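quick one, 187 residues, struct below
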Amino acid sequence: MRILLMGPPGAGKGTQAVVLAERLGVPHISTGDIFRANVAGGTPLGLEAKRYMDAGEYVPDSVTNDMVRDRLGHDDAANGFLLDGYPRTLAQVDELDQMLDALGSSLDRVVELTADLDEVVARLLNRAVEQGRADDTEEIIRRRLAVYAEQTAPLTAVYSERGILAQVDGMGAVKDVTARILDELGI
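---
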């Protein structure tokens, strides 16, 4: 299966991505992991990304797109993958469509984890304390959630129109959320 996993910060997306990828026997492809691997490996794309990151700037879509395109071309992704953290914009949706078309495939499902905002805020505030993130205040967390909702709404609309979007309650025990996702996937 070729799955895109989306969800607001604190909805458990990272945890579910690892569990689902293992369960489905597909690689978990995270843009954060791709960036770190390319930078650590000193690849041309990694060096280009590092230039922007060292300057405190956003890495341009063109570099991110090239990294994702390269990763999707690896042999382990030929029979499926779980994509996490990409696409984040409508332009990236179009780019991903082109990448998958070139590989003769398409997304099977897009799973969006949904969550009660107050519970997510509480979860993230707790995580901030545990990890010593003094800058993760309630105000900042609520702003990140608002930005996510604003930026993600157009993407979920596209995938809903295509009939491949499944919205799954991301709150509760990890195993319960996993069971709900697998049920949506028909597994």
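The mean pLDDT is 92.
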